[in-house]
Design a protein that fits this description.
164 residues; mainly alpha; Four Helix Bundle (Hemerythrin (Met), subunit A); 5 helices; elongated
């Protein structure tokens, strides 16, 4: 395999791997809080569900950016597979890092915010949406910015005509 292709696919892999790790940790954090409340108040399941799964979105963002890289490389067939030279492979790798690191970090912190919202909603259910979901979505905005930064770098910041 050419080094440029290895770097490009490595960047795509990092986007999925790091954002997926962050999502797993974030969901773990929020689900522990939910299960502690649900053991005594199972009727609150629906109220907590969105706060538990919200940190999982970062994994999807990393996957979307990795998919975009693979589509740009014609990885799934169609016309000829694009083999990026070394410098283009580095650019693609670096373009994947915003979503990779934003996904890793924001998912963990979003899990902590969601857990706090769940614990608070266990005592004051009327605040579940206001303080639980809204605060967790505020963290989500930075994950979205990481995804958009990577998408823009992949689609507009890279001169794909240099590829073979």
């Amino acid at each position: 395999m050419d080094i440029g292709m290895a770097l490009a696919l490595g960047g795509a892999g990092m986007a999925v791997l790091l954002s997926g790790i962050g999502s797993s940790i974030g969901i773990n954090i929020s689900s522990k809080a939910a299960t502690s409340i649900l053991s005594e108040k199972p009727e609150r399941y629906g109220q907590f569900l969105i706060m538990v799964v919200l940190p999982g979105t970062q994994g999807f963002y990393g996957f979307l950016d990795a998919l975009l890289v693979m589509i740009k490389l014609n990885f799934f067939g169609g016309t000829k597979l694009i083999i990026p030279p070394f410098d283009l492979g580095i650019q693609i790798f670096l373009a994947c890092l915003p979503v990779a690191f934003a996904g890793l970090i924001t998912a963990i912190y979003q899990g902590k915010v969601a857990a706090a919202g769940i614990l608070m909603a266990g005592k004051k259910p009327e605040l579940a949406f206001k303080a639980g979901v809204v605060y967790a979505v505020m963290v989500e905005m930075y994950a979205i910015l990481g995804m958009l930064a990577s998408m823009l770098l992949i689609t507009k910041g890279i001169d794909w005509s240099k590829a073979v």
